[in-house]
Amino acid sequence: MLRYVISAFFVIILFLALTVFLPSTAVAQPSGSVSGNVVNAASGATVAGAKVQLIGLGVSKTTVSGKDGTFRFDDVSAGSYVIRASAEQYQAYSTTPLPIAAAQNFQLTIYLSPVTTTSISTIGHITVHGRASLNLSSAPVTTISSAEYVSKGLYQVQSALDTVPGVTIEHFDNGAPGNVATLTIRGAGGFVGGSNTGYEVLVLQDGEPLRNGQFGDFDLSTLTPAIYSRVEVVKGVGGTSLFGANTIGGTVNLVTRDPLQQPGGEIIYSVGNFGTQDINLSGTSTFGKVGFLFDLHQFSSDGYIPWTFRADYGAFAPGTVGVITNPTLYFNLKSVLGKLKYSFSNSTNVVFTVTDESDMRDQTGLLGNPSPVCFSGPGCTNDPFGNPYFFGFPGNYLWNIQPKYAVDVHTTVGGGALVLRAYHQTLFRLVDGENAATPPSSGSAGCCFIQPQYDRLTGQELLWTKEIGSNNSLTIGAGGNGDYFNYGQGTSSTFLPSTQMIFSTANCQNKGWCQGTQIERTYLVRDDADLSPNLNATFAGYYSSYDTLNVKRFDPRLALVDKAFPNTVFRASVGSGFAAPRLSDLIPFINTSHFSSIAFGGCPSSEPFCAASAGGNPNLKSETATGYDVGFEHQWGNGGDVNLDYYRTNLTNHIFSGFEPAPPGTPTFDNGSPILFLQSQVNLAGTVYTGLETTLSVPLSENFSFDPYYNVQSAYPTGVPLSVEQAIGNIVNNQQYLGVPLHKAGAYLNYHTRSRTTTASFGGDWYAINNSYNTWPFWVYNASASIPVGDSSIHIGWTNIFNRQAGLFSTFNGGVKYQGAPGCGLSGNGPCNMNDLYSTTMYQRAPHMLIVTFDRRWGSLR
After folding, report:
1. What is the pLDDT of residue 619?
2. Cα dihedral across residues 216, 220, 224, 229: positive or negative
3. At a CB cut-off of 8 Å and minimum separation 6, what does 759 contact?
4. Under 8 Å between Cβ of 327 and 280
5. What are the residues whose beta carbons fall under 8 Å from the beta carbon of 7, sequence distance 6 or more?
6. CA–CA distance from 447 to each of 235, 392, 406 (Å)?
7. Which terminus of the chain has a smaller tally of CB atoms within 10 A, N or C?
């Protein structure tokens, strides 16, 4: 037996030896090739001199792109390969593993993104046979192009964001174009317990923070998508921008358009119901070393209140009795973008940018509410057309003026790409509520207030990126930005122009006319390393020093991207972030001209309004968050795609607006009433943001696809004391925050011709319970179509087709009641009743809107 075993062993050894040492008689597989070109993702120009690598199992080849951006690898055997490209002043990019068959001539185009401070994430772009690649960023990213806004008839930035999973638009009254719009991302950034936490999300323009000095957020309705090439949404804690640590829910970045290499232009004209009109004219070209781009844009709308409606000012203020007018929602937004680029060499250039987004709004109808009460005497209940009169706000006008200037210098230092940027922006906002019957020009008494706000934003940034070896990219950044601002409200029996409002410490304490300066500095070190052809790791460390906002901290972030298969990507990240308090929350003052009631324990029947705003709390800490994200994306067939992301963020030191008994010596209100409670911002508790986001694209045929999405976003407080729950009313431990829907979903059926020149879409979005409209769940249905007409195209966008949740005015206390804190209704005051049900205001969406757009493009903008 042993002899047979030994014989078999020797046979095996002999076979292996012959296999290894004797020449193979098998027929050699024919070799193929990989070729393509490297293109600037921003301008469309070819990139010459780019280093291109072909990496496979035991194979590594390197070449350089030619003057026309082309490259080629010959003698490529069958197998799986990764293509990596890098160039000076560009971010390196690696593809997913690409399967190359025997004798295949594989072609592709690689788009390299320029190194710049204006982009928040490294988003590689690659097209293989006309198909977009997977998202290889370390974070969940949604990019909305300006073309998508035009094709769907959407002419405000927030319109398309409302359908992004995990994003909720906050509403203040109704869906009018001129109404203020802010956002939450994954539950962060909402109005928690009546306390604005909009500073938990970061809004950037070309990578630079936009913010309102008083509220910490930014009104998106003042922005038009026309002057932007794209809107980037990066979700999660600690993005990859220079200022990415100062965010909890995520970041929205609006990237302005860049000059292109070849001449091009466009004329866009749109008309719609309610007097809507949109006009856009732009052009770009490069002559020798000089490139330019300009964009002129105007959007206007009459709103959607019929002229037959009437508003009665009589109940609001003396001197307005019998003044009846048509409530309006007129909105006029004008935008300008100008860029001039001068190239000293292939590696050094300077770019000058000027933008201005300014608007005027007649908001008489925004602050009105229907009322069955007759204010002005006999016959005022109904007008001749049968429409009821309602409470109106006298002559409410608003102006926003927002010019911005920036200069960028791109060059090469120490073998790396260096970008220097400086900018200056002014945000001026004026709300004028005067007496329409007796305006200041008449010399008579005006009414009723004026609210000016002035922000001067400045900043400088430095970003240096260098390729180290063939697998590492090091980035070092430093930046600082400041916000000098003043804000206030004046109420007087005579008209008070803003020039007579003196912003000082004394007036801040007794009139609410405040000023301040906040300085923020951030330092970044980031390393992107290719651990293998399939595995990429990113480490980013932020040090933040906010001198005036009680912040000095270090925030790390680690992310892994596994390109396991040609059509599959896994990603995971963990990191920390923070939300700095607003400077207005740190400046202590007592506003004796404004008062409010509190829900529990508080105002006696003799003094129903007894709480004064105490302004800031100098001991307030920043909110701190740690979170992680796990994602997966897979593509199949001709356009099939599934994307899953699970996240969890734990927040501590959540800032709430709380009430405390007024200490002895507190002054009285201006009318002599006693101040019994002070309302200020305090660190009270923690919060958990967690959820699952899913997007899917299913190709039904060569011409049809079905794109559903669904997300769960759970957002709830933890550790709030019962007494605080009762005082605030709508803050309940482990219960979903008011205005943040637990579920969000939508689905669209899309049609396109083979050339994709003709497209159409129909679908809807579902707003679940606890939505920001404070109403029962409902669907909104939309449709769009794009049709070529010669060298031009016609776009048709129809939003809210069936007029769901559409209305003219908010309904005070008419929304779905929220289960308030136990005992919050014991006093009978405030929005909580005896059943501890917290009353809410029901907000309305814009009615159905049909917009037709004529789009004529030529040259490089086609």
Report:
1. 83
2. positive
3. 151, 750, 751, 752, 753, 784, 785, 786
4. no
5. none
6. 44, 13, 40
7. N
- Distance, in Å, from the CA atom of 64 to the CA atom of 589, rounded to the nearest integer, reads 64
**Which value, in Å, is the radius of gyration of the alpha carbons in the chain?**
30
Mean pLDDT (whole number) for 511-531: 84
pLDDT tens string 50-105: 889 888 877 888 899 888 889 999 888 888 888 888 888 888 888 877 888 888 88
Rounded to an integer, the average pLDDT of 588-612 is: 63
Q: What is the DSSP string of 580-627?
A: PPPGGGTSEEEEEEEEE--SSS---TT-S--EEEEE--TTPPPEEEEE
Mean pLDDT, residues 763-768 taken together: 94
SS3 assignment, position 817: coil
With b meaning 16 or more CB within 10 Å and e meaning fewer, what string describes 507-523?
bbbebbbbbbebbbbbb
Question: Residue 443 pLDDT more than 80?
Answer: no
pTM: 0.85
Query: What average pLDDT does the chain have?
Result: 80
785: which 2 tokens?
A: 């179509």
Contact 771, 851 (CB under 8 A): no
The residue type at 227: I
Burial class (CB in 10 A: 0-12, 13-18, 19+), 5: exposed
The domains of the chain, with CATH numbers, are 34-114 (2.60.40.1120), 141-859 (2.40.170.20)
Handedness of CA 255, 256, 257, 258 (dihedral sign): negative
Count the helix, strand and coil residues of the chain and give each as a percent rounded to the nearest 5. Answer: 5, 50, 40
Better-predicted residue by pLDDT, 404 or 210: 404
Q: What is the spatial distance between Cα 193 and Cα 715, in angstroms, rounded to a whole number?
A: 13
Cis peptide bond N-terminal to 603, omega within 30 = no
Number of continuous H segments (helices) and E segments (strands) in the chain: 5, 51
- Phi, psi for residue 257 in degrees, rounded to 5: -70, 150
The pLDDT confidence band at residue 120, using thresholds 50, 70 and 90, is low
Which residues sit opposite 650 in a β-bridge? 626, 688
